[in-house]
Every structure is written in structure tokens, then in C-alpha cells.
Amino acid sequence: MDDPLYAEIDDQVERLGFELVDIERVGSRTRPILRLRIDRPGAGPDTGDGVTLEDCTRVSRAVEAFLDGRPDMSARYVLEVSSPGVERPLVRRRDFERFAGREIAVHTTRPLHAGSKRVQGELIALEGDPEDERVLLRTESGEELRIPRDQTKKIHLVYRWGGKGL
């Protein structure tokens, strides 16, 4: 991500011992809302060592102190900090490496597979260089797909209640 604010918040979160999964910027210029998803390095949706409410509070206070000192940030901003949830989004290359072998859902900008904008399967890898990344996954039928990353809207883990997916 080329956003300088993202990089600065990422540094703040990392110094506290967490990783920044994603930032969602919504709201308006006068009332911006920043939604941060944080995780513990190495944690997964089924490892039992995820982010607690206390962790979110700690990160929120540290990031608020940082944002309050920024002249380019509206004084009316809203900061929301949460865990990534069981259907954790995959955003960075390290996410794809960490969750290789897990079941994922890929939402695309146009129909790619059997006329659908959503495909699900086992994450094999993220291939290519940053300018030409492709998500390699294996569908339940065994077909391997290479989906251009620039044609994706959202990629996330699939959580199966009572099971671990594929």
C-alpha cells in the first residue's frame, strides 16, 4: 500500500507487537472513519490466541495519540480497532504465505470462473511480482486457477463451523 498514513499506522501497531491486517477508510473528509483490523503475528482464526478486547483498546489508545498529533487529520475522526475475525481478509503477501493450504474465497471485479464473481478453494500461493500478482488456488473439483490480483475486490479465509475447510 502506497498510503503514507497506512505505513505510519503500520509502524505504530507493529511496535506494540501486533500486525496491521487492513485499514478501511470511510466517512467524509470532515468526519473520517478509520477501521483497523489487527492480529497477533502467527495467530490464526482457529489457534485460540487471537486478539482480545484489551489488545484492541491498547492499540486504539496508541494510534489515537499518534493521530491526534497529525495536522492533516480532522479532529472529528473516528477510530475503530478490531480483530480480523474468523474470515480474515488476506491483504499482504505475508498473509498468502501464512495461510497457504487454507480454504479461501476470492471475490472478483468480473466473472472469471463458471460465470461467477466469487470462487472458493484451497490457497496454493500468491505468484508473480507486485505488478503482476496472481492468486493460485485449487477448487474443490481439483481445477487450479490463477486469478490476477488486480481483478480481485476481496480475498478472505473461509471458516467452516464444525470443521477446518478443505
Secondary structure elements and pairings:
Layout lengths: L3 H12 L3 E9 L4 E8 L13 H16 L9 E5 L10 H6 L4 E6 L9 E10 L6 E5 L5 E5 L3 E6 L9
Parallel strand pairs: 2-3
Antiparallel strand pairs: 1-2, 4-5, 4-8, 5-6, 6-7
Brief overview:
The chain has three helices and eight strands. It has 166 residues and is α+β, with helices and mostly antiparallel strands.
Any overview of this molecule?
By secondary structure, the chain is α+β, with helices and mostly antiparallel strands. Helices cover 20% and strands 33% of the residues. The protein contains three helices and eight strands, in the order αββαβαβββββ. The strands form two sheets. It has a five-stranded antiparallel beta sheet with strand order 7-6-5-4-8. A three-stranded mixed beta sheet has the order 1-2-3, covered by helices on one side. The model has no long low-confidence stretch (mean pLDDT 90).
Amino-to-carboxy terminus distance: 30 Å
Rounded to the nearest angstrom, the radius of gyration is 17 Å
Order of helices and strands: HEEHEHEEEEE
- Main sheet makeup: 5 strands, antiparallel
**In total, how many beta strands?**
8
Number of DSSP helices? 3
Sequence stretches where pLDDT stays below 50 over 5 or more residues? none
Shape: globular
Estimate what percentage of residues fall within beta strands: 25-35%
Which class best fits the helix and strand makeup? Answer: alpha+beta
Helix content: 10-25%
What order do the strands of the largest sheet run in, or round the barrel if closed?
7-6-5-4-8
- Could you tell me the mean pLDDT? 90
